[in-house]
Amino acid sequence: MNTLAQKIIDAHGGLDTWKTFTGLTAHLKQGGALWDLKGHGGKLGETNVTVGLGDEWASHHPFGADGKVTLFRPEKVEIKDSSGRVLEELEAPRASFAGHTLETPWTDPQLAYFVGIAMWTYLNMPFLLAAPGVVSEQLSDWSENEETWQRLKVTFPKGIATHSTVQTLYVDADGLLKRHDYDVEIAGNTPGAHYIDGYTTVSGIKFPTERRIFPRQADGTSLPEPLVVSIDLSDITLR
Q1: Domain boundaries, the chain
Q2: Average pLDDT of 176-205?
Q3: CA distance 32 to 1
Q4: Residues 132-143: pLDDT tens digits?
Q5: What is the largest CA-CA distance in the chain?
Q6: Hey, which residues does 210 pair with through a beta bridge?
Q7: CATH of region 3-231
Q8: Residue 164: enclosing H or E segment and its boundaries?
Q9: Using CA atoms in the order 177, 179, 184, 187, what is the torsion angle rounded to 10 degrees?
Q10: For residue 1, is pLDDT > 90?
Q11: What is the 3-state secondary structure (H, E, C) of 13-48?
């Protein structure tokens, strides 16, 4: 493994500790401009998410005011009622975004796919750096907010459903994540700069609890507005 990747994993609690768990649940409060833009304002303003650790799946509950539950896997998305009855499903969900731009509205299953890949990626990072087929490469350092951050280019294999094949992590001197860049392929390759803060420790693993995503410019700098997505996490539980 790349030495910087190893440093980042160790800083967040270490791979051996991480591998003792198979799932994670957290409470989310979310805001930002994206939800209204996609036609789903308020639907996931306050919800819970459960994700697999390693195994790629995620579930949001409730999904909207009527208490629906989602189940995301890369090959299929399901939306169920509170009793577990499947109300909607979408096979090969990634293909359904063909031709989308940032302004294209999403159906409920498409929203469930987006938040599924997003939260699974965020909550499994940085331990995804050790996943089979994931390749990492150290880039030149980056200066921002009077700090110098190390950068790691991460290339994902086709078997992992995430925002984009190539992503970039920024970490501080201790190896903790500060920023995470990607292009949202399912929304017209929209570039984002995702800022990370508010660390807490749960069962020996360090998790950021504050996430803020802004537009990213061609030179790598971010714009201060609009706030595209905000995510605040609490009640994180590993099992």
Answers
A1: 3-231
A2: 98
A3: 36
A4: 999 999 999 999
A5: 52
A6: 197, 232
A7: 2.50.20
A8: none
A9: 130
A10: no
A11: CCHHHHCCCCEEEEEEEEECCHHHHCCCCCCCCEEE
